[in-house]
Amino acid sequence: MYTTNASRGLPRHRSRHLTERYTRWAMRGVIAVLVIALLWLVLAFHLNGQWMFALLFLVLGGSLGVVFTKRTLMSHRYIFPAIAGLGVFVIFPLLYTIGISFSNYSSTNLLSEERVRDQLMSQTYQAEGNAFDLALYPDSDLVRLYLESQEGQRFVSSPLNVANQENRQIGVQPADAPPAQEALGMRDIIQAREALQGLRLITPDGNELRMAGLRQFAPMVNRYEAREDGALYDRRDDRLLTPDPSIGFFVADDGERIAPGWPVNVGMANYTQIFTDPDIRGPFMQIFVWTFVFAALTVVFTLAVGFVLASLLQWDQLRGKAVYRTLLILPYAVPAFISILIFKGMFNQHFGEINLILDTLFGVRPEWFTDPWMARSMLLIVNTWLGYPYMLLLCMGLIQAIPQDLYEASAVDGGGPITNLFNITLPLILKPLTPLLIAAFAFNFNNFVLIALLTGGSPDILGASTPAGTTDLLVSYTYRIAFQDAGQNFGLAAAIATLIFLLVAGLSLLNLRLSKVKV
């Protein structure tokens, strides 16, 4: 005999088999729902013209269905979420940024060509003819539109509900005088403005009147007329607009580009502009050099301060090491943005504590935010304060790992603290510390928060055609081009971001190679 499940009267192995079957079907149902949701996203992005996002979710949905339905790929199910997250949040944004760098994507070239054409076709202008003053008169629960021109022409509409958005085109009849009721006030006209803007009033002679102001209707006609070859005829200025796919604009006969435009592929134009346009090349190279200098000096200063303090904390005669260690690591525990904002107030040129102390002791008041060199010095001082606790922790751990026998042997040979420092301590900690120093360099290479909160890139570089400051790093310079420039040149910003990625990727590869060095 075999045991049975008391609750169902079934054999235990059969009950377990049913449970496993239900679990499998439940998992398949969840996977099916996820795949259907992803395919719905694919369709939605495709219908909106976002083919890159549609391709992303198509690949994601397909791989999800394959990995979780084939038993031979069961081992890959555990790493699939990590790989999917890597693809969605790292690889795809990187490829998308690189793709944008080869386009003229900007605030003026943002919409698709179809939407640009639709937007131009929706523009109207006031044709020659009388403008009519508008008044609304109540009629039971409805209202009448009363129009009167300066020449004495009067028209009145039949009673209508202006809130009814379906009444797009209505006729008006001549009138000898305004209705007898009291006209509604401006507040009522403002409330009905959206509905009034959608009305087309047809006069007895066939003219069409549209809302030309808050209290006016006038003969309004479409400004552009579509031609069979894709060009647009400008009725108001009597000129022909031809679409130019090489620049993404409609171009008039006189060469004027009509905004808005649409994104097009411009090849290496953004990259060549960085190095050939003097107004961009000069600020870019200045910021490029400063970015390297800033990152390198930050690493040197933080390492020097951290190493000296770590060496002092290892001094045998020093009492209260735990207290000193806690106090020295406190800047690392405080959020960086709080410390930066505090320093910004302390370095204030007129009311900051630092200038008050310097003025009292030495009679000087440095212009920390207006002088380029003083602003850069301020950045290095603040960043050294923020970064030295990290180096302190690293150096303390590495110094404690050095065998004490080496120092004892050095003492027997007559070596002192300076000899031990340069012949024992530094050589033994530099090799394991090198990859970490490179990582710190890469971090400070893209230290956007410090620049954004402390100086904002100021003072500005004179003569630059893009927003550029003497304290900008490449990452903050890219941000200002993309989001603070009047043109918001996303293509140029993406090109600079791609160059930054190549530099940081090179540093990461170097870091990996150095990490393999055996100490």
Automatic annotation (TrEMBL):
Membrane spanning stretches: 25-45, 51-69, 78-102, 287-310, 322-343, 378-399, 490-512
Subcellular location: Cell inner membrane; Cell membrane
UniProt keywords, alphabetically: Cell inner membrane, Cell membrane, Membrane, Sugar transport, Transmembrane, Transmembrane helix, Transport
Main location: membrane
Membrane topology: Multi-pass membrane protein
PROSITE patterns for this protein: ABC_TM1
SUPFAM superfamilies (alphabetical): MalF N-terminal region-like (SSF160964), MetI-like (SSF161098)
Domain ABC transmembrane type-1: 288-511
Pfam families, A to Z: BPD_transp_1, MalF_P2
InterPro entries named among the record's database cross-references: MalF_N, MalF_P2, MalF_P2_sf, MetI-like, MetI-like_sf
Quaternary structure, from the entry: The complex is composed of two ATP-binding proteins (MalK), two transmembrane proteins (MalG and MalF) and a solute-binding protein (MalE).
Family stated for the protein in its record: Belongs to the binding-protein-dependent transport system permease family. MalFG subfamily.
Protein name: Maltose/maltodextrin transport system permease protein
Species in which this protein is naturally found: Vreelandella piezotolerans
